[in-house]
Amino acid sequence: MTKKRSILMIYTGGTIGMVKSETDGTLIPLEMNNLYHYIPILERLPVSIDMHSMEKVIDSSDMDPEFWKELAGIIENNYLQYDGFVILHGSDTMAYTASVLSFMLENLNKSVILTGSQLPLGMIRSDGRENMINAIEIASAYDDDTPIVPEVAVCFENKLLRGNRTSKVNAENFDAFLSGNYPVLAEIGVNIRFNRSAIARPSFKNLKVHKNLSGRVGILKLFPGITKEFTRNLLLQEGIDIVILETFGSGNAPSGSDFVQIISEAIKNGKTLFNVTQCKGGVVEMGKYAASKQLLDMGVVSGHDITTEAAIAKAMFLLGQGFTGQQLASKLEKPLCGEMGRGEK
Q1: Which residues are CB-contacts of 279 (< 8 A; sequence separation ≥ 6)?
Q2: Residue 93 catalytic?
Q3: 85 near 111, Cβ under 8 Å?
Q4: What's the pLDDT tens digit per position in 163-210?
Q5: Can you list the domains of the chain with their CATH numbers?
Q6: Spatial CA neighbour of 219 closest among 201, 206, 197, 237
Q7: Average pLDDT, the chain
């Protein structure tokens, strides 16, 4: 007889947990105890589901490191009691949360699946029901006593994506997320087809949760006509240790003397610059073109094929662990949990 798996569903807020008020028709948060009323089929799943609502549910636009620490702590405190975790989350910052949790939850050996919806659960055409059921099935999927997906992932519109490889690319369509540089972990149709070669291997080590995150991170998105005053103000401001450079194409940037001088000055002042492409697919290859060779020569760190969301998460995580200087640069450039490169763990 197949063992009945147990799942902890954590509600953080977001569209998926909203229903229409019977009094005035406004959207209000769903009482998690009423979940089976809106998705009665859940009672037929061979899974035991417990629900935990965050003390303060939020719109995902208000997501911040303190909330991530609380979320990681809930998983840590319940890790041994459950076979997997499903996080109900607003879609706007889901890729950021999925990315940062992948760094915070070292040696993860169970599924942590984030899902949400574009339409509230209480609406007739809501995509939330299917997303939630799929996420629960995947979080509880085991081969004997080994979880099939022992990593942080995003389940949305019949696809499972590695969490730290995702970006939200559409605010209107149900198919809202893209993994531009890494294969889909599973496709969900009549059957769930797992792409096992792309899924992380179980660590079989004890979970280690890292809760130190640093906010000393900034982003400079390059655009044609960017002024030297704006560039200087951002790159040289106090309180920022790592700046994510969102560059053009394969890592290219303006080659004019003003821009180059500011980059050089920022690095000499101890800033670490992390080069990430603005493209949703493709890789940073500094030195491929003259427009990026100067960055390479000055010591700008290549982000290879990392997403901006994962770059921010990685920067916060590494600064929180106390890395600085060359050691920080070296850690940024190498994959830690499948966030870049070929996805090794």
Answers
A1: 180, 249
A2: no
A3: yes
A4: 999 999 998 888 889 999 999 999 999 999 999 999 999 988 999 999
A5: 5-209 (3.40.50.1170), 217-333 (3.40.50.40)
A6: 237
A7: 92
Residue type, 3: K
- Give the orientation angle of helix 65-78 with respect to helix 94-104, to 10 degrees: 50
**63 residue type, one letter:** M
Strands (DSSP E) found in the chain: 5-11, 18-20, 27-29, 47-53, 84-88, 105-106, 111-115, 142-143, 146-147, 152-156, 159-162, 167-168, 177-178, 186-188, 192-194, 208-209, 217-221, 242-247, 272-277, 301-302
d(CA 196, CA 157) in angstroms, rounded, equals 19
Q: Tokens representing 103?
A: 């760094």
Average pLDDT over residues 286-299: 87
Tokens of 340: 């870049």
Cβ partners under 8 Å of residue 34, min gap 6: none
Amino acid at the residue 247: T
Instruction: Name, in order, each residue with C-beta under 8 angstroms of 160's C-beta and a sequence gap of 6 or more.
Output: 113, 134, 138, 149, 153, 154, 184, 185, 186, 187, 188
Span 92-139, pLDDT tens digits: 999 999 999 999 999 999 999 999 988 877 777 888 889 999 999 999
Active-site residue identified among 12, 15, 115, 166: 15
- Given the structure tokens 């949305």, which residue do they identify? 156
Region for residue 338 given its phi and psi (left: phi exceeds 0; alpha: psi -120 to 50; beta: otherwise): left
Helix (H) or strand (E) holding 74: helix 65-78
Residue 180, token pair as written in the block: 């531009």
**pTM attached to this predicted model:** 0.94
